Amino acid sequence: MTSSKTNIFIRFSIITIAFSALVSCESNFREVQKMGFAEFAPSGEAEMINLKYTDSGRIKAVLVSPKMLDYATVAYPFTEFPKGIDLTLFDANKKKTFVKSNYAVSHKNTDLIDLQGNVKITNETGESLETEQLYYDQKNEWFFTEKRFKFTSSKGVSYGEGIDFSKDFKKVNSQKISGEVQQSE
Q: Whole-model pTM above 0.70?
């Protein structure tokens, strides 16, 4: 072979090898993308759920939701309720607290529920709280937010930004608050 034919052959071989490597890498990259997507897919999915949580034979909570996605196999497991929840909490005296939101995420390792979108909590005595985002600490039965809120009770209506309270509204700590509230005599 002449030197120019050898150079052309070598160049052609290098281009063929480079092209093969490039195509191979693209194929591997797509496989890696698929694996990443599959890894974050829910491990469980349910529609029209009605869950009852009991402790020592007593119902503590009832959760109703149109859709539930369970991500139990990810590093930080959680359960997502993309179409919202309707939650009823029961205290030791069977008094109820009602919680509604457009979206919710329950973080399994922390026992926190992140409620978002038109969050409203009411109880049997007519007290209610409305906000856009609220967290519920299941272990301590405590709600909290840094967002704006509206709190309504028999004493009046108050508005504020930042509040935390017990699920029965007996203990309330609020920040930046305004409104008309009657004093107890």
A: yes
